[in-house]
Write a structure and sequence with these properties.
Heterodimer of an alpha and a beta chain. GO terms for molecular function: hormone activity. It is found in: Secreted. By secondary structure, the chain is mainly beta. The chain has a domain of about 80 residues: Cystine Knot Cytokines, subunit B (Ribbon). Helices cover about 0% and strands about 35% of the residues. A two-stranded antiparallel ribbon has the order 1-2. Strands 3-4 form a two-stranded antiparallel ribbon. The chain is elongated. About 5% of the residues are buried.
């Protein structure tokens, strides 16, 4: 017999599947005074995953996340940088996405992370 926990919840069917999404991100660099918003494509969406009902001793469970399949990097030159600071910064542009184990070198796989357009320069700093 089939156990209901093996099926995605009805809410899961309402979530968008893993796909390319246009997103504004903020570019910033230490030694440069302003954040600059740029438009890029990121991977976002839902991936179905299975979780065993009974834990099997010494087994590992990997949950899949929506992550990059193909990617390239664009460069941007930040204005208003201090002398001696390289103003060039690179940022990722997703070309395709897939559901896979999280690669922390390329993705933020935390449960709740900073928004892509978050800017450290926007946080008031008190001396």
């Amino acid at each position: 017999s089939l156990v209901p926990e093996h099926f995605p919840s009805p809410v899961a069917y309402q979530l968008p599947l893993c796909q390319l999404v246009n997103q504004t991100i903020s570019l910033e660099k230490e030694g440069c005074f302003e954040c600059h918003p740029v438009e890029t494509t990121i991977c976002s969406g839902h991936c179905f995953t299975k979780y065993p009902i009974m834990a099997i001793r010494f087994s590992k469970v990997y949950q899949h996340v929506c992550t990059y399949q193909d990617i390239y990097y664009k460069t941007f030159e930040l204005p208003d940088c201090l002398p001696g600071v390289d103003p060039v910064i690179t940022y990722p542009v997703a070309l395709s996405c897939r559901c896979s184990r999280c690669n922390m070198d390329m993705s933020d796989c935390t449960f709740e992370s900073l928004k892509p357009d978050f800017c450290m320069n926007d946080i008031p700093f008190y001396y």
